């Protein structure tokens, strides 16, 4: 088979172009394998020319010497990297990887030679805290305090004294002050200044005796509670009595009817007597009886010595009352209590064991005391007199 080989003449290889740029192809001896290849002329061939130029320089000027230098530096670096230049602990044991022992800090305890009699786990403390939280979250019962009043010399003193006591009681509390015939501006001004939530009521029934007027005033307040269906604990607080804050706190523990002993001065004003229940814990088992005129009564309790749930007035079915007649005061305390409860089993004695006196009734007769000369009852209850 015949082959045709085209040879390149020197004139063709070294020929210059018309634009003045010359180009020469590398010789076959420049390549390591001795094979020659021809590359076309283009702009991308500049990178190839630089590569072949570098290969040519290494091949001509001694690539063996460069290779020996690289080999020498590689050996030196390997020796420096492997040879140790300091002390290293090569003894690796299991303890080097073990977790450290965690021990509590030392505590200096000074023990006395005493026997441990009891151990408290704090259960009672937690129960007490839960009870306190429950008391804080549970809303308090409303107290409905009924006070009859009338125009007399010490009316301003009595109302202000009782108002300041009620102001210290935790709300909710509503103070029902009942006057006879008409509501006076002086009484309304006193009630506004006390800072206690109040309702100013009027009893329109006329009566000749003070006791009957007081009965009508209380019944007017009871009718108001029944008509508006106020929910709370009803307490008759006469304006001339003395009360402790503990009493008002104990009233909120009453479920249906609660009673307590009341201390009072005897008619002779030379000794103190008790009137009210005798209790075994919270159960009423008897009564204190002192006055011969009251020995025939069924229940021996003062009018300010008991309190009851207001729902008895407007929801008799809740308490199983056999009759639906309105509960009103007729004449004495015992006739009123008989409308609310049947016997002592439905009563609650407060405080525990009825062992504390929380209410004083002094029976001070001040009806004969008149206003000083120059005072006008219709306009003023308080006056400032110049000192001579």
From TrEMBL:
<feature type="site" description="Interaction with galactose moiety of substrate glycoprotein">
    <location>
        <position position="275"/>
    </location>
</feature>
<comment type="function">
    <text>Involved in the synthesis of glucuronoxylan hemicellulose in secondary cell walls.</text>
</comment>
<keyword id="KW-0808">Transferase</keyword>
<dbReference type="GO" id="GO:0010417">
    <property type="term" value="P:glucuronoxylan biosynthetic process"/>
</dbReference>
<dbReference type="GO" id="GO:0000139">
    <property type="term" value="C:Golgi membrane"/>
</dbReference>
<feature type="binding site">
    <location>
        <position position="240"/>
    </location>
    <ligand>
        <name>Mn(2+)</name>
    </ligand>
</feature>
<feature type="transmembrane region" description="Helical">
    <location>
        <begin position="67"/>
        <end position="87"/>
    </location>
</feature>
<dbReference type="GO" id="GO:0015018">
    <property type="term" value="F:galactosylgalactosylxylosylprotein 3-beta-glucuronosyltransferase activity"/>
</dbReference>
<keyword id="KW-0812">Transmembrane</keyword>
<feature type="active site" description="Proton donor/acceptor">
    <location>
        <position position="333"/>
    </location>
</feature>
<protein>
    <recommendedName>
        <fullName>Glycosyltransferases</fullName>
        <ecNumber>2.4.-.-</ecNumber>
    </recommendedName>
</protein>
<feature type="region of interest" description="Disordered">
    <location>
        <begin position="1"/>
        <end position="20"/>
    </location>
</feature>
<dbReference type="GO" id="GO:0009834">
    <property type="term" value="P:plant-type secondary cell wall biogenesis"/>
</dbReference>
<dbReference type="InterPro" id="IPR029044">
    <property type="entry name" value="Nucleotide-diphossugar_trans"/>
</dbReference>
<keyword id="KW-0961">Cell wall biogenesis/degradation</keyword>
<keyword id="KW-0328">Glycosyltransferase</keyword>
<keyword id="KW-0464">Manganese</keyword>
<dbReference type="GO" id="GO:0046872">
    <property type="term" value="F:metal ion binding"/>
</dbReference>
<comment type="similarity">
    <text>Belongs to the glycosyltransferase 43 family.</text>
</comment>
<dbReference type="GO" id="GO:0042285">
    <property type="term" value="F:xylosyltransferase activity"/>
</dbReference>
<dbReference type="GO" id="GO:0071555">
    <property type="term" value="P:cell wall organization"/>
</dbReference>
<dbReference type="Pfam" id="PF03360">
    <property type="entry name" value="Glyco_transf_43"/>
</dbReference>
<dbReference type="InterPro" id="IPR005027">
    <property type="entry name" value="Glyco_trans_43"/>
</dbReference>
<keyword id="KW-0472">Membrane</keyword>
<keyword id="KW-0735">Signal-anchor</keyword>
<keyword id="KW-0333">Golgi apparatus</keyword>
<keyword id="KW-0325">Glycoprotein</keyword>
<keyword id="KW-0479">Metal-binding</keyword>
<keyword id="KW-1133">Transmembrane helix</keyword>
């Amino acid at each position: 088979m015949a082959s045709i080989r085209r040879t390149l003449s020197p004139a063709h290889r070294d020929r210059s172009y018309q634009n003045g740029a010359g180009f020469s192809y590398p010789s076959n001896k420049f390549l390591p394998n001795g094979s020659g290849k021809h590359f076309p002329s283009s702009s991308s061939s500049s990178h190839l020319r630089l590569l072949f130029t570098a290969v040519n320089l290494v091949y001509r000027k001694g690539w063996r010497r460069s290779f020996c230098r690289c080999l020498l530096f590689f050996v030196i670096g390997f020796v420096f990297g492997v040879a140790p230049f300091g002390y290293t602990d090569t003894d690796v044991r299991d303890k080097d990887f073990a977790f450290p022992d965690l021990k509590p800090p030392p505590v200096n305890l000074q023990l006395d030679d005493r026997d441990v009699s009891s151990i408290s786990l704090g259960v009672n403390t937690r129960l007490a805290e839960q009870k306190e939280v429950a008391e804080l979250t549970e809303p308090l019962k409303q107290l409905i305090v009924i006070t009859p009043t009338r125009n007399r010399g010490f009316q301003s003193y009595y109302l202000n004294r009782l108002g300041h006591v009620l102001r210290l009681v935790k709300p909710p509390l509503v103070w029902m002050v009942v006057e006879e015939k008409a509501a006076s501006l002086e009484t309304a001004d006193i009630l506004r200044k006390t800072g206690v939530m109040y309702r100013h009521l009027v009893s329109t029934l006329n009566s000749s005796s003070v006791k009957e007027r007081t009965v009508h005033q209380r019944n007017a307040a009871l009718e108001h509670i029944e008509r508006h269906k106020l929910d709370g604990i009803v307490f008759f607080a006469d304006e001339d009595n003395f009360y402790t804050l503990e009493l008002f706190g104990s009233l909120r523990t009453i479920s249906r009817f609660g009673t307590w002993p009341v201390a009072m001065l005897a008619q002779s004003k030379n000794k103190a007597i008790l009137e009210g229940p005798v209790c075994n814990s919270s159960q009423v088992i008897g009564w204190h009886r002192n006055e011969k005129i009251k020995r025939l009564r069924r229940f021996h309790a003062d009018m300010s010595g008991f309190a009851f749930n207001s729902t008895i007035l407007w929801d008799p079915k809740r308490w199983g009352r056999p009759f639906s007649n309105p509960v009103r005061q007729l004449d004495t305390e015992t006739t009123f209590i008989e409308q609310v409860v049947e016997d002592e089993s439905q009563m609650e004695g407060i405080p525990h064991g009825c062992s504390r006196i929380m209410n004083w009734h002094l029976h001070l007769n001040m009806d004969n005391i008149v206003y000083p000369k120059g005072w006008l009852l219709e306009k003023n209850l308080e006056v400032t007199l110049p000192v001579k």
